[in-house]
Amino acid sequence: MDTPLREPTFLILTALAREPLHGYAIIGEVAALSDGRLTLRPGTLYGALDRLTDAGLVAVDREETVDGRLRRYYRLSPTGETTLAAETERLRRNVEAATARLGARSRAVRPTAPRTAGGLA
């Protein structure tokens, strides 16, 4: 994937990096990873999972029936893992560059001590 990942996609792939998860577990993991900033609705999530599956980044791991309902688990595919690693490295380099620039700025713009009016008393 040559273009940067959108944040929801990045967080979905990150949620699946540890282990296969079913849809509602992915929603919970994305909310936790984003400190509650991003809440995926089921329709949005399943549309994203369909696109990620079509792109080969995610695969269906297994299906099971729980309380009479089908629960589908998704896992990160090898291509998804490579894509997530590349995007993580891209973001890391960006953070490193921004941190260096901010550090240089704070060193260059040091506040000076206030001058006091004075003279001989």
Brief summary:
The chain is α+β, with helices and mostly antiparallel strands and 121 residues long. The protein has four helices and three strands; from the N terminus they run H-E-H-H-E-E-H.
Key features?
PadR family transcriptional regulator, 121 residues, Tscrpt_reg_PadR_N, 3 strands, WH-like_DNA-bd_sf, 54% helix, 4 helices, 16% strand, Metal_resp_DNA-bind_regulator
Write the layout of secondary structure elements.
Blueprint: H1 7-16, E1 21-22, H2 23-33, H3 42-54, E2 58-66, E3 69-76, H4 78-108
Antiparallel strand pairs: 1-3, 2-3
Helix pairs in contact: 1-2
SSE order, as H and E? HEHHEEH
Mean pLDDT: 91
Structural category is alpha+beta
| Main β-sheet, spatial strand arrangement | 1-3-2
Q: Distance N terminus to C terminus?
A: 73 Å
* Rg, nearest Å: 23 Å
Q: What would the principal axes of the Cα set say about the shape?
A: elongated
State the name of the first-level CATH class. Answer: Mainly Alpha
Organism: Micromonospora endolithica
Protein name: PadR family transcriptional regulator
Pfam families: PadR
